[in-house]
Specification:
elongated
Amino acid sequence: LVVVAADGTLTRHAVVTLVEAALGLALGLSTALLLGYVLGKNQSLERLISPYIIASQSVPIVAVAPLLVIWLGSGLASKVFVCALITFFPTLISTIVGLRSVDPELRDLLRSLRASAWQQFRLLELPSALPVLFGGLKLSVILAVVGAVVGEFSGADVGLGFLINLARGVLDTPLMFVAVICLVVIAQLLYLLVSLAERICLRWRVVGE
């Protein structure tokens, strides 16, 4: 750990994996939130599309990653798409469940007060769905790190997944442990950031209780 940290090797590989996970998380979350909102508001459309979404998620990500590397190359794009695919489903489901958990009486109240669609979203739907959304987000940030490593396993020349592959090839067990520990630290830091954001965004619930 001291050797690879001193010569900059660990930092270089860790930064690449962190960037891949962050970009993939941003892509997966934005797509899941938009689609989840549409499906959460339209049950007929959800029943139509959900079988295809479930079918896409039933394919192991380790089987999809090599295909993405073939189609998109071994650069950043394939790793980002792997992360997006693996983080998409938890956020999608939490978005739909969060919207469906809105109190119907409160929704009727806002409608009776002639609230616009934006006002309903800002004042009722988003605050009601946030607790569930953060639950899905906590899972997604951890899966984003897993997705980055899976993508790097399939083809990469930099990143912590590549470092694990390299250590395995030369039977360097200490180096492998260093890479694994670094992945754990990154996942923990991302989880703590989401937990901090949750505490800030949901502080009104603590005050209300």
